[in-house]
Design goal:
- It holds the Pfam family MIP.
- It is a multi-pass membrane protein.
- This protein is mainly alpha-helical.
- The protein has one domain (about 15-245): Glycerol uptake facilitator protein.
- It has nine helices and no strands.
- The chain is globular, with a radius of gyration of 18 Å.
Amino acid sequence: MRPHPVRRYGFGDVHEASHPDSIRATLAEFLSTFIFVFAGQGSILALNKIYPDTGDTAETASRWIVIALAHGLALFAAISASFNVSGGHVNPAVTFGTLLGGRISLIRAIYYWVAQVLGAIVASLLLRLVTHGMRTGGFILASREDEWRALIFEVVMTFGLVYTVYATSIDPKRGNLGIIAPLATGFIFGANILVGGPFEGAAMNPALAFGPALVGWRWRHHWVYWVGPLLGGGIAGLIYEFMVIPTESSPTHTHHQPLAPEDY
């Protein structure tokens, strides 16, 4: 992963929008999100195919362990695959956190968001094709769970996810931690699924929620899986950026200049 520039904010410019580095990074985000969603959501369809849900408690616990492991490993691989090209966001909430932290321009963030959502949609479409029409379930709340508790779950879990990303891949003092950033991110993602999954599905990623919901056409409670992760990711980015990372000195004029593509 390229060293992050000093904290500065910018919309971006035409040069950045058309720069080959921006195009490569956007493609990397698309492919990595595709890899992550295809493997993660595919594991759920595979479990439904092999072991139809019987409601058995022990079987349900085993399902969540498999789902958490599949998503954690898939995220580890997806981040590793794009780490040195785009920074390995693979998540609109991570991109939002770095945008609020001044580590990425608005143009680059928009490119990433589009690529991540498209990657999730294509992965979900291909899953439906290769599984003979099985519908991706998206994310739904468990019975007797309400949207506001689910929202808090998503905020807290995504906060932990993006905070881990900041600590291991963005913090200038991270040292050798950058080597394990993809693994650490995969671990916290899988762990959070074990915590929040039985209650509300544990998306922590709007793209991961949107692709399966669109292809399976299941929109109930869908707003929770956008608002919660974006809030959690944004709060984590701001807290780590302004309360944990030391104040960075930079020329006063850089605050108003657009971020150059080579800075990422």
